[in-house]
Design brief:
By secondary structure, the protein is an alpha/beta fold. The protein is 43% helix and 14% strand. It has an eight-stranded mixed β-sheet with strand order 3-2-1-4-5-6-7-8, with helices on both faces. Bound molecules: NADP nicotinamide-adenine-dinucleotide phosphate.
Protein backbone atom coordinates (compact mmCIF):
# COMPACT_ATOMS: atom_id res chain seq x y z
CA UNK A 1 0.00 0.00 0.00
CA UNK A 2 1.31 3.46 -0.92
CA UNK A 3 1.94 5.87 1.95
CA UNK A 4 -1.13 8.04 2.41
CA UNK A 5 -0.51 11.76 1.97
CA UNK A 6 -2.45 14.80 3.21
CA UNK A 7 -1.83 18.40 2.13
CA UNK A 8 -3.06 21.47 4.01
CA UNK A 9 -2.85 24.97 2.49
CA UNK A 10 -2.08 27.98 4.67
CA UNK A 11 -0.89 25.65 7.42
CA UNK A 12 1.58 27.89 9.20
CA UNK A 13 -0.90 29.55 11.56
CA UNK A 14 -4.52 29.87 12.60
CA UNK A 15 -7.08 27.21 11.69
CA UNK A 16 -4.76 25.70 9.05
CA UNK A 17 -2.14 25.05 11.71
CA UNK A 18 -4.85 23.52 13.91
CA UNK A 19 -5.90 21.22 11.06
CA UNK A 20 -2.29 20.08 10.49
CA UNK A 21 -1.98 19.40 14.20
CA UNK A 22 -5.20 17.39 14.23
CA UNK A 23 -4.15 15.39 11.16
CA UNK A 24 -0.67 14.73 12.62
CA UNK A 25 -2.38 13.05 15.56
CA UNK A 26 -5.07 11.15 13.66
CA UNK A 27 -4.32 10.74 9.95
CA UNK A 28 -2.84 7.43 8.93
CA UNK A 29 -0.03 8.80 6.75
CA UNK A 30 2.24 11.80 6.09
CA UNK A 31 0.91 15.31 6.61
CA UNK A 32 2.21 18.21 4.51
CA UNK A 33 1.99 21.63 6.10
CA UNK A 34 2.25 24.10 3.23
CA UNK A 35 2.77 27.84 3.56
CA UNK A 36 3.54 30.67 1.17
CA UNK A 37 6.48 31.76 3.32
CA UNK A 38 9.11 29.08 3.88
CA UNK A 39 10.38 30.60 7.15
CA UNK A 40 6.91 30.76 8.69
CA UNK A 41 6.14 27.25 7.45
CA UNK A 42 9.30 25.71 8.86
CA UNK A 43 8.82 27.53 12.17
CA UNK A 44 5.36 25.93 12.40
CA UNK A 45 6.84 22.48 11.72
CA UNK A 46 9.36 23.16 14.49
CA UNK A 47 6.56 24.13 16.89
CA UNK A 48 4.79 20.84 16.17
CA UNK A 49 7.96 18.85 16.70
CA UNK A 50 8.24 20.34 20.21
CA UNK A 51 5.02 18.53 21.13
CA UNK A 52 6.13 15.31 19.47
CA UNK A 53 4.23 15.77 16.20
CA UNK A 54 5.84 15.32 12.83
CA UNK A 55 4.67 17.22 9.74
CA UNK A 56 6.46 17.73 6.44
CA UNK A 57 6.89 21.07 4.71
CA UNK A 58 6.37 22.24 1.15
CA UNK A 59 6.09 25.81 -0.04
CA UNK A 60 2.73 26.75 -1.56
CA UNK A 61 1.40 30.17 -2.45
CA UNK A 62 -2.11 29.62 -3.78
CA UNK A 63 -1.80 32.95 -5.60
CA UNK A 64 1.26 31.85 -7.60
CA UNK A 65 0.87 29.48 -10.57
CA UNK A 66 4.53 28.44 -10.48
CA UNK A 67 4.40 27.61 -6.79
CA UNK A 68 1.26 25.48 -7.34
CA UNK A 69 2.89 23.68 -10.28
CA UNK A 70 6.00 23.00 -8.16
CA UNK A 71 3.94 21.32 -5.44
CA UNK A 72 2.02 19.21 -7.98
CA UNK A 73 5.28 18.18 -9.60
CA UNK A 74 6.81 17.28 -6.22
CA UNK A 75 3.83 15.13 -5.19
CA UNK A 76 3.74 13.38 -8.54
CA UNK A 77 7.46 12.60 -8.57
CA UNK A 78 7.73 11.68 -4.88
CA UNK A 79 4.51 9.77 -4.24
CA UNK A 80 2.72 9.38 -7.56
CA UNK A 81 -0.47 10.72 -5.98
CA UNK A 82 -2.07 11.81 -2.73
CA UNK A 83 -5.20 11.32 -0.63
CA UNK A 84 -6.33 14.40 1.27
CA UNK A 85 -6.43 18.09 0.36
CA UNK A 86 -7.54 20.79 2.79
CA UNK A 87 -8.13 24.14 1.05
CA UNK A 88 -7.68 26.43 4.03
CA UNK A 89 -5.59 29.38 2.81
CA UNK A 90 -7.51 32.64 2.42
CA UNK A 91 -7.33 36.36 3.05
CA UNK A 92 -9.83 38.83 4.49
CA UNK A 93 -9.57 42.60 4.57
CA UNK A 94 -10.31 44.17 7.94
CA UNK A 95 -13.47 46.29 8.25
CA UNK A 96 -11.24 49.31 8.74
CA UNK A 97 -9.21 48.61 5.57
CA UNK A 98 -8.70 51.73 3.47
CA UNK A 99 -8.05 50.00 0.13
CA UNK A 100 -10.78 50.82 -2.44
CA UNK A 101 -13.59 48.25 -2.69
CA UNK A 102 -12.58 47.36 -6.27
CA UNK A 103 -9.03 46.55 -5.18
CA UNK A 104 -10.32 44.44 -2.28
CA UNK A 105 -12.67 42.63 -4.66
CA UNK A 106 -9.94 41.83 -7.17
CA UNK A 107 -7.47 40.58 -4.54
CA UNK A 108 -9.96 38.67 -2.41
CA UNK A 109 -11.59 36.86 -5.33
CA UNK A 110 -8.21 36.14 -6.92
CA UNK A 111 -6.73 34.53 -3.78
CA UNK A 112 -9.78 32.95 -2.13
CA UNK A 113 -11.66 31.78 -5.20
CA UNK A 114 -9.30 31.58 -8.20
CA UNK A 115 -6.32 30.56 -6.02
CA UNK A 116 -8.29 27.71 -4.48
CA UNK A 117 -9.54 26.74 -7.94
CA UNK A 118 -6.00 26.73 -9.37
CA UNK A 119 -4.79 24.46 -6.55
CA UNK A 120 -7.67 22.08 -7.27
CA UNK A 121 -6.97 22.09 -11.01
CA UNK A 122 -3.32 21.23 -10.42
CA UNK A 123 -3.79 18.68 -7.64
CA UNK A 124 -7.10 16.92 -8.37
CA UNK A 125 -5.56 14.81 -11.17
CA UNK A 126 -3.19 13.41 -8.52
CA UNK A 127 -5.88 12.41 -6.04
CA UNK A 128 -6.13 8.70 -5.41
CA UNK A 129 -9.38 6.68 -5.08
CA UNK A 130 -11.21 7.44 -1.80
CA UNK A 131 -9.70 10.93 -1.75
CA UNK A 132 -11.13 13.50 0.63
CA UNK A 133 -11.13 17.24 -0.04
CA UNK A 134 -12.18 19.74 2.62
CA UNK A 135 -12.56 23.37 1.64
CA UNK A 136 -12.70 25.88 4.47
CA UNK A 137 -15.51 28.27 3.59
CA UNK A 138 -17.23 30.44 6.21
CA UNK A 139 -20.61 31.38 7.63
CA UNK A 140 -20.18 34.14 5.03
CA UNK A 141 -20.07 31.43 2.36
CA UNK A 142 -23.70 30.37 2.80
CA UNK A 143 -25.83 31.28 -0.23
CA UNK A 144 -28.19 33.35 1.96
CA UNK A 145 -25.33 35.84 2.40
CA UNK A 146 -26.15 37.11 -1.10
CA UNK A 147 -28.86 38.75 0.87
CA UNK A 148 -30.52 41.40 -1.28
CA UNK A 149 -34.28 41.38 -1.83
CA UNK A 150 -34.16 43.04 -5.26
CA UNK A 151 -34.67 40.92 -8.44
CA UNK A 152 -30.94 41.17 -9.31
CA UNK A 153 -29.97 39.50 -6.01
CA UNK A 154 -32.60 36.81 -6.51
CA UNK A 155 -31.23 36.17 -10.00
CA UNK A 156 -27.72 35.82 -8.58
CA UNK A 157 -28.91 33.40 -5.87
CA UNK A 158 -30.69 31.34 -8.53
CA UNK A 159 -27.52 31.16 -10.62
CA UNK A 160 -25.25 30.20 -7.70
CA UNK A 161 -27.78 27.69 -6.40
CA UNK A 162 -28.47 26.01 -9.74
CA UNK A 163 -27.75 22.27 -9.62
CA UNK A 164 -26.36 22.53 -13.17
CA UNK A 165 -24.03 25.50 -12.57
CA UNK A 166 -20.70 24.89 -14.33
CA UNK A 167 -17.21 25.90 -13.27
CA UNK A 168 -17.05 28.23 -16.29
CA UNK A 169 -20.32 29.94 -15.29
CA UNK A 170 -19.17 30.26 -11.69
CA UNK A 171 -15.88 31.81 -12.81
CA UNK A 172 -17.86 34.23 -14.97
CA UNK A 173 -19.96 35.21 -11.94
CA UNK A 174 -16.81 35.86 -9.89
CA UNK A 175 -15.38 38.01 -12.70
CA UNK A 176 -18.68 39.87 -13.12
CA UNK A 177 -18.54 40.82 -9.46
CA UNK A 178 -15.03 42.26 -9.93
CA UNK A 179 -16.20 44.22 -12.99
CA UNK A 180 -19.20 45.63 -11.09
CA UNK A 181 -16.92 46.49 -8.16
CA UNK A 182 -14.64 48.42 -10.53
CA UNK A 183 -17.63 50.21 -12.09
CA UNK A 184 -18.94 51.03 -8.61
CA UNK A 185 -22.28 49.36 -9.45
CA UNK A 186 -22.04 46.11 -7.46
CA UNK A 187 -24.92 46.97 -5.13
CA UNK A 188 -27.32 47.82 -7.99
CA UNK A 189 -26.30 44.52 -9.62
CA UNK A 190 -27.48 42.61 -6.53
CA UNK A 191 -24.10 41.80 -5.00
CA UNK A 192 -23.50 42.07 -1.24
CA UNK A 193 -21.22 44.72 0.18
CA UNK A 194 -18.47 42.23 1.12
CA UNK A 195 -15.79 40.86 -1.15
CA UNK A 196 -15.10 38.10 1.38
CA UNK A 197 -18.75 36.94 1.24
CA UNK A 198 -18.61 36.66 -2.56
CA UNK A 199 -15.31 34.73 -2.45
CA UNK A 200 -16.65 32.26 0.12
CA UNK A 201 -20.03 31.78 -1.59
CA UNK A 202 -17.84 31.06 -4.63
CA UNK A 203 -15.83 28.27 -2.98
CA UNK A 204 -18.96 26.68 -1.52
CA UNK A 205 -20.65 26.73 -4.94
CA UNK A 206 -17.45 25.28 -6.42
CA UNK A 207 -17.59 22.39 -3.94
CA UNK A 208 -20.99 21.34 -5.30
CA UNK A 209 -19.71 21.41 -8.88
CA UNK A 210 -16.58 19.46 -7.93
CA UNK A 211 -18.60 16.71 -6.25
CA UNK A 212 -20.60 16.25 -9.46
CA UNK A 213 -17.31 15.83 -11.33
CA UNK A 214 -16.03 13.39 -8.67
CA UNK A 215 -19.24 11.36 -8.98
CA UNK A 216 -18.53 10.99 -12.70
CA UNK A 217 -14.83 10.25 -12.14
CA UNK A 218 -13.37 6.80 -12.79
CA UNK A 219 -11.63 6.94 -9.41
CA UNK A 220 -14.14 5.57 -6.89
CA UNK A 221 -15.41 7.27 -3.76
CA UNK A 222 -14.02 10.78 -4.20
CA UNK A 223 -15.57 13.27 -1.77
CA UNK A 224 -15.38 17.04 -1.40
CA UNK A 225 -17.21 19.23 1.13
CA UNK A 226 -16.99 22.79 2.38
CA UNK A 227 -17.56 24.02 5.91
CA UNK A 228 -17.84 26.95 8.25
CA UNK A 229 -15.11 26.34 10.86
CA UNK A 230 -16.71 28.61 13.47
CA UNK A 231 -15.82 32.10 14.64
CA UNK A 232 -12.28 31.48 15.80
CA UNK A 233 -9.59 33.35 17.72
CA UNK A 234 -7.07 33.93 14.88
CA UNK A 235 -5.26 36.83 13.22
CA UNK A 236 -8.01 36.94 10.59
CA UNK A 237 -10.64 37.82 13.18
CA UNK A 238 -8.24 40.09 15.10
CA UNK A 239 -8.64 37.46 17.85
CA UNK A 240 -12.31 38.35 18.38
CA UNK A 241 -13.65 34.85 17.70
CA UNK A 242 -14.69 32.97 20.86
CA UNK A 243 -13.66 29.54 19.56
CA UNK A 244 -10.15 28.13 19.95
CA UNK A 245 -8.03 27.08 16.97
CA UNK A 246 -8.45 23.47 18.12
CA UNK A 247 -12.25 23.86 18.00
CA UNK A 248 -12.05 25.58 14.59
CA UNK A 249 -10.07 22.64 13.21
CA UNK A 250 -12.70 20.06 14.22
CA UNK A 251 -15.01 20.16 11.18
CA UNK A 252 -12.35 20.61 8.46
CA UNK A 253 -10.35 17.72 9.99
CA UNK A 254 -13.48 15.56 10.19
CA UNK A 255 -14.13 16.21 6.48
CA UNK A 256 -10.50 15.48 5.63
CA UNK A 257 -10.70 12.07 7.33
CA UNK A 258 -14.22 10.92 6.36
CA UNK A 259 -14.18 7.11 6.29
CA UNK A 260 -14.26 5.15 2.99
CA UNK A 261 -17.53 4.77 1.07
CA UNK A 262 -19.40 7.31 3.16
CA UNK A 263 -22.84 8.15 1.74
CA UNK A 264 -22.92 11.66 3.13
CA UNK A 265 -21.70 14.37 3.42
CA UNK A 266 -20.74 14.65 -0.24
CA UNK A 267 -20.63 18.02 -1.98
CA UNK A 268 -22.22 19.50 1.13
CA UNK A 269 -21.80 22.60 3.29
CA UNK A 270 -21.30 21.87 6.98
CA UNK A 271 -21.45 23.94 10.12
CA UNK A 272 -18.61 23.78 12.66
CA UNK A 273 -20.56 21.26 14.77
CA UNK A 274 -20.50 18.91 11.72
CA UNK A 275 -24.18 19.34 10.89
CA UNK A 276 -25.01 19.47 7.19
CA UNK A 277 -26.72 22.75 6.34
CA UNK A 278 -28.96 23.18 3.30
CA UNK A 279 -26.86 25.61 1.27
CA UNK A 280 -29.51 26.57 -1.28
CA UNK A 281 -32.80 26.81 0.59
CA UNK A 282 -31.79 26.69 4.24
CA UNK A 283 -30.42 29.24 6.64
CA UNK A 284 -27.36 29.10 8.87
CA UNK A 285 -27.80 27.80 12.45
CA UNK A 286 -26.50 31.15 13.75
CA UNK A 287 -25.05 34.35 12.30
CA UNK A 288 -21.38 33.51 12.96
N1 LIG B 1 -11.10 32.65 11.94
C1 LIG B 1 -12.41 32.55 11.71
O1 LIG B 1 -13.24 32.87 12.57
C2 LIG B 1 -12.89 32.05 10.38
C3 LIG B 1 -14.28 31.99 10.18
C4 LIG B 1 -14.77 31.50 8.99
C5 LIG B 1 -13.88 31.05 8.02
N2 LIG B 1 -12.53 31.15 8.24
C6 LIG B 1 -11.66 30.62 7.19
O2 LIG B 1 -10.72 29.74 7.79
C7 LIG B 1 -9.51 29.72 7.04
C8 LIG B 1 -8.35 30.01 7.96
O3 LIG B 1 -8.56 31.29 8.53
P1 LIG B 1 -7.75 31.81 9.81
O4 LIG B 1 -8.72 32.48 10.67
O5 LIG B 1 -6.91 30.73 10.34
O6 LIG B 1 -6.85 32.95 9.11
P2 LIG B 1 -5.36 33.42 9.38
O7 LIG B 1 -4.99 33.25 10.79
O8 LIG B 1 -5.28 34.78 8.75
O9 LIG B 1 -4.50 32.38 8.52
C9 LIG B 1 -4.65 32.37 7.13
C10 LIG B 1 -3.62 31.41 6.54
O10 LIG B 1 -3.73 31.47 5.12
C11 LIG B 1 -2.46 31.76 4.58
N3 LIG B 1 -2.51 32.43 3.30
C12 LIG B 1 -3.03 33.61 2.96
N4 LIG B 1 -2.83 33.86 1.66
C13 LIG B 1 -2.17 32.78 1.16
C14 LIG B 1 -1.66 32.45 -0.11
N5 LIG B 1 -1.75 33.27 -1.15
N6 LIG B 1 -1.06 31.25 -0.27
C15 LIG B 1 -0.93 30.39 0.77
N7 LIG B 1 -1.34 30.68 2.01
C16 LIG B 1 -1.96 31.87 2.19
C17 LIG B 1 -1.77 32.62 5.64
O11 LIG B 1 -0.38 32.66 5.42
P3 LIG B 1 0.53 33.89 5.97
O12 LIG B 1 0.83 33.60 7.42
O13 LIG B 1 1.72 33.80 5.08
O14 LIG B 1 -0.28 35.14 5.80
C18 LIG B 1 -2.17 31.82 6.87
O15 LIG B 1 -1.38 30.67 7.00
C19 LIG B 1 -9.71 30.74 5.93
O16 LIG B 1 -10.18 30.09 4.78
C20 LIG B 1 -10.80 31.64 6.48
O17 LIG B 1 -11.48 32.33 5.48
C21 LIG B 1 -12.03 31.63 9.38
Amino acid sequence: MATRIAVVTGGNKGIGFGIVRELCGNFDGKVYLTARDEGRGRAAIEELSKVGLSAHFHQLDVDDAESIANLADYIKKTYGGFDVLVNNAAIAYKNAATEPFAEQAENTIRVNYFGTLAVCHALFPLLRPHARVATVSSSCGHLSRINGSEPQATALRNKFGSPTLTEQELGDLMNQFIIKAKEGTWKEAGWPNSTYVVSKVGVSALTRIQQRAFDADQRPDMVVNSCHPGYVDTDMTSHRGPMTIKQGAVCPSYLAMLPPDIKEPRGAYLWHDKQVVDWVNGSTPSIV
